[in-house]
Amino acid sequence: MFQRGILMALTTLATAAPAASTSANTPAGTQGVIRWHGEGVQIYDCKKSVDGYAWMLRQPDAMLTDADGHVTGHHSVGPRWTATDGSSIVGRTIETIPSPAAAIPWLVLEASSHDGHGALDGVTYVLRTETVGGVAPADGCSKAREGAVTTVPYQATYSFLRPGKTNQPAPAQPTPTQTDQGENGR
């Protein structure tokens, strides 16, 4: 389980540390934080829920830009982030933090898959912070509107974290004789 202290450290790092780069042309070996601004919509479907009917998140649809406003990628269902260089990651939420504003929550996501080579190579965590808007409507979803779709504008900062380099040697790989000995070889 993710500890609150680690969560706060990651959030502080993502929102206070200078970005390693904000360009989609970041070399794959760059370490640290890449910070992109996301602006788009949260797409909701009106569906039956345990309490009647409610707006349920279908997916985000947002353009990602660097600090200079240059398009760096796209954020979509998965959740997936795809850089303009073709590299992409899919994340899974491991922690949700209420937004300090009336907006969608801040998230800590762990990268669960990578595709392509480029700016998003080696990213292990994604933080969604500094959210504005995006909250599902409180009303307007009913049996009569089941299947309806609505979009809600939102903005967020996405920080892509990579582990720092270490000078420690890689762990030794077991030799075939070590792995083939089975239970009696211990």
Which terms summarize this structure?
DUF3455, 186 residues, elongated, 8-stranded antiparallel β-barrel, signal, 8 strands, mainly beta, DUF3455 domain-containing protein, single chain
Describe this structure as you would to a colleague:
Pfam families: DUF3455. It comes from Aliidongia dinghuensis. The chain is mainly beta and 186 residues long. It has one domain (4-21, 36-162). It has two helices and eight strands. An eight-stranded antiparallel β-barrel has the order 1-2-3-4-5-6-7-8. The two termini are 32 Å apart.
SSE order and pairing:
Elements: H1 4-16, E1 33-49, E2 52-65, E3 71-76, E4 80-83, E5 88-97, E6 106-115, E7 125-133, E8 149-161, H2 176-179
Antiparallel strand pairs: 1-2, 1-8, 2-3, 3-4, 4-5, 5-6, 6-7, 7-8
What is the CA-CA span between the terminal residues?
A: 32 Å
Mean pLDDT: 81
The SSE order reads: HEEEEEEEEH
Number of helices in the DSSP assignment: 2
Classify the helix fraction into a percent range.
under 10%
Count all strands and give the number.
8
User: Taking Cα atoms only, what radius of gyration do you get, to the nearest Å?
Assistant: 20 Å
Spans where pLDDT lies below 50 across 5 or more residues: 14-30, 165-186
Strand order of the largest sheet: 1-2-3-4-5-6-7-8
| The number of domains | 1
Largest sheet: 8 strands, antiparallel, barrel
Which class do the helix and strand fractions yield? mainly beta
The share of residues in extended strands comes to 35-45%
Shape: elongated
InterPro entries: DUF3455
Region (Disordered): 161-186
Organism: Aliidongia dinghuensis
Keywords: Signal
